[in-house]
Amino acid sequence: MMRYAYFPGCSLHSTAADYDRSARAVCGRLGIELAEIPDWNCCGASSAHMTDERLALALPARNLAAAEKEGLDVVAPCAACFNRLKITWHEVRHGEAAKLLADLGIEYTGRSGVKSLLEVIARDYGAEKLAGQVVRSLEGLKVACYYGCLLVRPQEIMDFDDVENPTVMDGLMEALGAEPVPWSHKTECCGASLALSRSDLVASLVGRILAAAKEAGADALVTACPLCQANLDMRQREAARAAGEDFNLPVYYFTDLVGLALGLGPAELDLGKKMVDAVGPLRARELA
Fold this sequence. Notes:
Strand content: 5-15%
Structural class: alpha/beta
Low-confidence stretches: none
Oligomer: single chain
Strand order of the largest sheet: 2-1-3-4
Largest sheet: 4 strands, parallel
CATH topology of the largest domain: Rossmann fold
CATH architecture of the largest domain: 3-Layer(aba) Sandwich
Radius of gyration: 18 Å
């Protein structure tokens, strides 16, 4: 069995609890064991990296150190958490962070690596192997795979996929029978960090992403980030006013569609928690 130290992060224990449920359900079906890091703490993605360099390293490092004691690599479903954890891992391996952390009483050597949940399912488990587990093909569903700005950047540290045209999620969707559409806004920022301070700007950014997906012929968006999902899902009405057009595009976590293809139902994946109806369009295509 594949086993990882699981870092859910703050979002998956609060506003994105449906992502946590979806991720656990899919991993359980695939035989991927998620051992939640005991007494984990916030990785600081929201503000620590902008206010205090030591705190920005210490917060993720404490979680990584706990995983290292168990001899496990860390998996993070949230793109923002993955970004902060991976940067800390890189700084310990290639920079001066190890001494700084030791001075703070945190023992972490970088032996335990960091992966996104998308990487674990698409590459460690493997898209080809996953295709053999599909019991409900998603044929006929056109999706715009949205990676956002944190999952693949900075490229020299994330080392995850092409920084301008990532394709790992697209390949995963193809393995499920869905059709990933080519489109222009795969890695454009949705403005999640400005959600409270500049909601007008966020509505504009979200509108551009939704318009690009709709123009490409997508039936839905797929993402691997709870912040992106929330922004693209709940701000469609504001974005529609800013753009002067209606969108009504469901925004799924990639685990939602993997789960459906594996035979899991909408309730097991918590699909009813989305702001834009995510179940109706699937039932209309006899996918749920």
